[in-house]
Amino acid sequence: MAIQPSGLHHVTAIGSDPQRNVDFYSRALGLRLVKTTVNFDNTSSYHLYYGDEAGRPGSLMTFFPWQGAPKGRLGTGQATATAFSVPEGSLGWWSDHLGNLGIDADPIQERDGEEVLTFRDPDGLILTLVAHPQGDPRTPWDDGLIPVERAVRGLHSVTLSVADESATSEHLVDDLGLRFVHRHGDRLRFAAGDGGPGALVDVLVTPTAPEGLVAAGTVHHIAWRVDDEATQIRWRAELMERGFSVTSILDRQYFRSIYFREPGGTLLEIATDEPGFTADEPLLELGRALRLPPWLEPDREQIAATLPRLNLPAENNPERLAEADATAATEAPA
């Protein structure tokens, strides 16, 4: 078997208000907006990428925030929860932080030997913070809004909801090379790579749940990591040999992608680690301006005119924050 992803690359969801989305994920969760672009398949919507300082694979949560998008429905055949990794012992701080922002969160619980804190974003998307007892060595985005010792390290896991576990479980193991870790009630855990935070997927068996409807407040797809395009080509060929309907390789400017559906209905992507988000702008300026791929540049004026204006927090760009501090110091009374 050639297909053995090392972990998650990103999770992409749908929102309904771009500015509200930026405010929540940058200020409430302390993630960095690493790329402001558009949905390459429908340029009427932004495509916003949040993650660590450089938007490394495994740290990324992305959104298509369609203004006024209708509400979706959580259910089977989709990813119904996205979990982020935070340091052990930090969930009490996060519970207070979210409460101070008026964000309702469930009581802290223990699940599968991990402490978890569950809440929802403004569109109702289910999010979980997980304090992994073995820790997470990844470096967080230190933006000044969230103390670095509490900050999100990256994705922890995703949950797929299914009516029947068998086909999805077999696919994860037999077709994607993941390994079964354990079962806890109606939840099965599978791991890719080393099985740490960012390499986990849970399958939640909910036979009486309705079929999910993808719209605002739901996950559009999840993406697995592949090192490079050459490996991706081999994986695509193997998936097709196994009977999956797989898209052609698509140029997403910051990575290359293929898409297919797992047997339970969730849309999956395999995305390359290369070339990354500094392909078209410097590290310090990530996310600050609207970036378009070369084939959309001729339509920049028309595209930009259809998009609402975004106000980014100064903390998103260290250079801008330093400039603001210097200006404030200069203008301060003696």
TrEMBL record:
Q: Where is the composition biased (Low complexity)?
A: 324-334
Report a single Gene Ontology molecular function.
lyase activity
Which PROSITE patterns does this one have? VOC
Keyword Lyase applies: yes
Q: Which UniProt keywords apply?
A: Lyase
Ranges for domain VOC come to 7-132, 154-273
Q: Which Pfam families match?
A: Glyoxalase
Region (Disordered) residue ranges read 314-334
Tell me which InterPro entries the record gives.
Extradiol_RC_dioxygenase, Glyas_Bleomycin-R_OHBP_Dase, Glyas_Fos-R_dOase_dom, VOC_core
Cross-referenced PANTHER family:
RING-CLEAVING DIOXYGENASE MHQE-RELATED
In its UniProt entry, what is this protein called?
Answer: Lactoylglutathione lyase-like lyase
